[in-house]
Amino acid sequence: MLEQHNDILTALLKDAARSLTACRAGMPYTDGMQSLVTDAEAAQARGYFTPGEDERLRTAYAHYLGVRAALWETVQSLLPYIELPRKFKKGDWQAHLRAFAVAFSSAAMLLRSGYYLIDMAANRPIVRAKLDEAEPRYGIERKQFTEIYDSLISTRRMAKYYSALSFFQRNEIEIYGALTGEFAPVAEILKFEEPYFETRFRGHVKRKAKFNIFSLRRRRLSAVSKTMFFLFEAVGSDISELKQPLVKPRGAGKRVTDEVRTELLRLAQPGDVFVTRHDDAMSNLFLPGFWPHAALYIGTDTERARVDVAASKPEHQSIPGEVRFLESKKDGVLFRPAEDTLQIDACVILRPKISPQDLRTALNRALSHSGKLYDFVFDFASADRLACTELIYRTYNGFAGNGGADIDFKLAERAARQCLSAEDLLNQAVGNGWFEVVALYGVGDDKLSSGEEAHKRLIKSYDYRAE
To answer: Could you tell me the sign of the dihedral formed by the alpha carbons of 311, 317, 322, 323, in that order?
Structure first.
């Protein structure tokens, strides 16, 4: 039993390290903030944001919140192991140190990037007010910035941060010694953040004084023994307080049940695209539209072997189980069992209208991207990291459509980069006749529909238009 827990934790740690590395690229840095600071200065001087300035700030802010939520989910995935039996806590010390390194690196990145926002809004009431506005397009609630500010300058939270820093300093050599191989990128992040560790307290005091218009909640620190996992929990569980929409009762499961999943898989064929939705996932809050995510159905190894498509790679698999999907999530472009990908509330299945020969080529092209990191920057000009829709884009773009126009997805500028959102993908794929709608579930009710009925329901779920 102990060995099984250690194997599960090792797999989770590897995924967490990959997610952390991908999130790092999406976090704001000083040079990338300069254009926003220029906009902020101009807005403060005139007393309001122009529509263009407003859009740039909102897009960048939503992007930051999305990466922030992904970091929190990365740390949260490891938290359940805190409650395992005491003998497991005394198990693999190397795994414990890696878990701490992931959590502490996440907290350090969130503190630094959050301070960029706070400093940009310092002495600029127009900016603070704008960041506190609700933005339904991205699921941003009113006073979201105030909550972030309160979290970052909290005396309680800073005390926990310094408890974790103390543990890091006492065990620094062993921590870096544990971060080898696949965990080497975590060591790089720690080394990058290390010069900022000691300066954060002075900055914390200054920011707290400067933003005295905000309320500061004070709570007593609980008297808990400062074990490694306590520090992990303290840093991890407090680095984010993003709210999920109250769209379902606490503890409610996904609307796609085992029975529905079985039926969806019965309808699916290798090459189908699943465009999906979680009703309450934090990582989907800051993406526009009803449909935020896409995954590629590749079928089983046996099904692919029949049509001369490559097998999956075990080293690029998310969790144990029979592989059915290739999907890019925060832990990267990985092969995934249906139980992983279809933990969702709604989905639509699209089927490309291309020849069997082209489908074979497209699937082999898709599988060549396995193992890459997730692209939090959404830069479709680069192929070294892929967002979920970029995997679909690079799989099918350029193939000849059966009886129609060639598949030619048009990218749109978002946050000064050319990319393709899930709803843009749907608009173009269905609107131009490149893909047919096979089935749909979870729109309006928990009913599975197919064919023309599914097509009509899809149209009602988003801003349908032919591009």
So the answer is: negative
